Amino acid sequence: MWTRKASFTFAGGISLILIGMMISNHQMMILGLSFVAFIVANSWISGHGDVEVQRTLSADNLYKGDDLYVELLVTNRSSRRTQTLEVYDNVPHEMKLRSGLNQMKMNLGPGESARIRYVLRCPLRGHFSIGPVSLRYRNTFNLSVEEMFVDHHSDMIVFPQLRDVEEAFIRSRTPKMYTGATTLRTPGPGTEFYSLREYVPGDPFKNINWKAFARTGDLMINEKCRDAVTDLYIILDSRDIARIGTVLKNPLEMGTVAAASLANFFLQRRDSVSLIIYDEKLSYLPPDTGDKQHFKILSSLAGVAPKGAMPLQAVTNSLAARFSRGSPIFIISSCEGDGTVPAAIRDLVGRGHEVTVLSPSSIDFERLVSRIPRMSYEVLKIERQNRMTSLAGFGSQVIDWMPDMDLSQALLQVRGY
Amino acid sequence: MAGEVSPQEEGNRTLHLRTLRKQWQIITLQVIATVALVWMYMEIVSTYVVGSIDHTILFRMLEAEIGSKLPVGDWLTGLDQEGVASYYVPIGVGLTIGGGMSLLAFQPPKRQQKIKLGFVIGLILILAGRFVMSYIWQLWDEGWTIPDDSALGTLEWPLLMILSMVILMFYLLPVIMGTRGIWGLSRKGVAWCIGFVLLFLAIHAILSFPVVKAQLGGYGDKLATLDVLVGAPTVGFLGMNLVTEQQFSLIMIACLIMIFQESAFGVIRQLEYAFRLPESCKRDPEYVKQVDNVLNGHLRHTVIFLTITTLSTMVALGFHSVLLEFVEGVTGSQWAAQVSESIELTLTYGLVISALLFLGLMAVLRFFVPWQRLWGLIETSLNRS
After folding, report:
1. Which of A222, A395, A166, A38 is nearest to B251 (CA)?
2. B212 touches chain A (CB under 8 A)
3. Is A24 in contact with B247 (Cβ distance < 8 A)?
4. Residue B253 sits in which domain range?
């Protein structure tokens, strides 16, 4: 496509020729002809975006606030020069360029390569994709421009940050409640070796002891000691109201950090953790243990976005049958705009669950973005305090989580109720 | 895809302006631009100005009016030379002033301020220093009186000198602004230079238009006109004579304007790009290599495409003779004579149409000649060997 300069040069050339003919001025005619000849000569050259692009990331999954190293290798596989090519790697706008640059002006000969290296800071959790790669050929004299792109994407997940919560729980009111996996001296699902036994049809192949098979000629199975684990349920409020505050500091962001940290803590103790997210619909991740579950939980939390207004009681009613008897439940919610919270908690406590409500203070988050008159703030704060006290009155442990408070610090408050 | 990603490397060469300004490609482009500027100026002067409206005529008129020599030396104004030679020293002065202005632009602001202040003070001292001293002496002797003739006479020399310099600078404005633009990396400087040249050509075209020229009377007779399209071509290449000397001179003016413009703007554009890169990229050998590639490409294209432009304009202007030969070959000489008349006697229309026809053919030819691919294959085989 012609640039404005090319259009002006061509139009100017034609105009000069015409004016020159009109007033019989040969300099004008020749100047005009030269301009047209310049455009024509330059039309003989054109760049191309027939390049091979390969992007390497330092990690596919990383935690919020981490740095991501990116390398983009651009290779000209064609048999002609690319000419002046501006290469721009499209990065999500949520990410910040920390060092280097995601663009380069290059002129690659046949078979030549160039590497663009840069570092991105990922300040927000989520599922992101780097790419496509935009290419712009620009004529040396800026007479023509052609926009192209290479549809090459690199997907990545930015998990919520993990905070250390162990210390807080050791000091909690019920220190023996979450002891983690306890090994029992009976065969069953677990991690520690118990004994060898003969293979029975239906046994998973991964449990076959191949060395024993080679030695004895019979298929033998590794039996493990049964681990007694606690099923733990984390319920995260992701309703639209959870977006109150700034992009980086809002109840949902703090909630995801808390959920990820708690899940990490319990999974490390080999407990079984389930994650329930409710917004406009309910998403339920059944309880499980291990790294795979950890990854599933972090992936789910990375993709959480505030939307909808599902009441908590609808969640607890629909999942009540799935909750293991007496299992601890963590509810991470600001408890705002939902009148069913007390009833839902009362029901859960009534069914014998150990309920802990971790409630980011939405009024204080709102103060970060808008000015609330002191009197109104005081009234709203008292209302919230009453709500928290009433929840505690139903037998749950309630934590009022302020924006400037660290998670472990907040969890220490559990003794106060 | 996750993998091992090494951080940006640091090489010996960097893309800092201090280094880049000394790089041979940049210097070459700047030299090309300067040569084009001087050559273009000389072509314009020799075609339109010398013997018609040149500065020596004006200086001689001034000297005749005041009845004495101007305070500026003849060697400086070129009054001691004839023809184009009278511009050699003034162009040197213009280049020096333009270069000085560029040098000044790269000084720290405080030093710039000091130099400018010194210049203004010096100018005031030259202009009024002697006058003030002699007037104060007169006041001391005679009390409160108006300045007498001897005091006022001290103003004559500085005023005439400044007037001479102003006239000289006016003539040299394109050279000064152009040099300032090229070496001082000023887009404005380059634009002003091209603007002056085009403005001059436009004013000259209007003034030399027969109707306007007739109104100018005796003054108009001195204007150089270019009624020389018809004539035996003497300039060409590959053994073909395509254009007349004067046509070639006009083509050179047009092409040199473009060479000057593209080289000067090219340098500024590439240095701007390098300047805007973050510090880590300026040290990265990959960026350094690609800037080299881009600059080499720019240099290659400047030489190749502007030469092609010049040659194709020449061929385009001589294309009517090719057509004539073709018509003569196909239809016989009687037809050719008629076509020749229609092309040459009408002077412009046939010539321009045949020139545009050639350029049209040239534009279409790109679809049939895969020269970029051919050149790429040559480049690949050269790299392999």
Report:
1. A38
2. no
3. no
4. 237-367
Residue B40 lies in a domain: no
Do the Cβ atoms of B209 and A23 come within 8 Å? yes
Nearest to A33 among B298, B305, B355 (CB): B355
Pairwise CA distance, residues A56 & B3, whole Å:
6
Residue ending a domain, choose from B223, B249, B284: B223
Helix (H, G, I), strand (E, B) or coil at B204: helix
Same-domain status, B136 and B193: yes
Closest CA to B287 of A40, A81, A104: A104
Residue A31 with chain B: CB contacts under 8 Å = 201, 250, 253-254, 257
Does the beta-carbon distance from A105 to B273 stay under 8 Å?
A: yes
Mutate to test the interface with B, among A38, A75, A153 (most CBs of B within 10 A): A38
Show residues of chain B in contact with A24, CB under 8 Å.
209-210, 227, 347-348
Decide if B310 contacts B255 (C-beta within 8 A).
yes
Say if B297 is an interface residue toward chain A (CB within 8 Å).
yes
**Average pLDDT of span B92-118:** 94
List the structure tokens of B325.
């030969």
Q: What token pair was written down for B375? A: 């050149």
Which chain B residue lies closest to A57 (C-alpha atoms)?
Answer: B2
CB contact under 8 A, B352 and A21: yes
Residue of A nearest to B262 (CA): A141
Task: Name residues 259-288 of chain B within 8 A of A (Cβ).
Answer: 262, 266, 269, 273, 277-278, 280-281, 284, 286-287
Answer whether residue B380 is part of any domain: no
CA distances (Å), origin A186, targets A269, A374, B157: 20, 62, 118
pTM above 0.90, yes or no: no
Taking chain B, what is the end-to-end CA distance rounded to the nearest angstrom?
35
Q: Which of A117, A140, A154 faces B1 most closely, judged by CB atoms?
A: A154
Lowest pLDDT segment from A188-192, A251-255, B253-257: A188-192
Mark whether B219 and B241 lie in a shared domain: no
pLDDT of A75-110, one tens digit each? 998 888 899 999 999 999 999 999 999 999 999 988
Residue B333 falls inside a structural domain = yes
Beginning with the edge strand found earlier in the chain, give each strand of the sheet holding A272-278 in spatial order: A282-288, A272-278, A231-237, A329-332, A355-360, A397-401
- Residue B191 counted as domain residue: yes
Q: What is the DSSP track for A289-300?
A: -HHHHHHHHHHH
pLDDT tens-digit map of B320-338: 777 777 776 776 666 667 7
Q: Is B301 on the interface with A (CB under 8 A)?
A: yes
What is the distance between the alpha carbons of residues A240 and A280, in angstroms, rounded to a whole number?
9
Q: Residue B143 has which token pair?
A: 């009390």
Q: What is the ipTM of this complex?
A: 0.85
Percent helix, strand, coil in chain A (nearest 5)? 35, 30, 35
Cβ contact B123:B70 at 8 Å: no
For residues B194 and B265, state if they share a domain.
no
- Under 8 Å between Cβ of A334 and A361: yes
Name which of B155, B221, B218, B167 is nearest B59 in CA terms. B167
Q: Are B178 and B197 in contact (CB under 8 A)?
A: no
CA angle B195, B199, B205 (to 5 degrees): 150
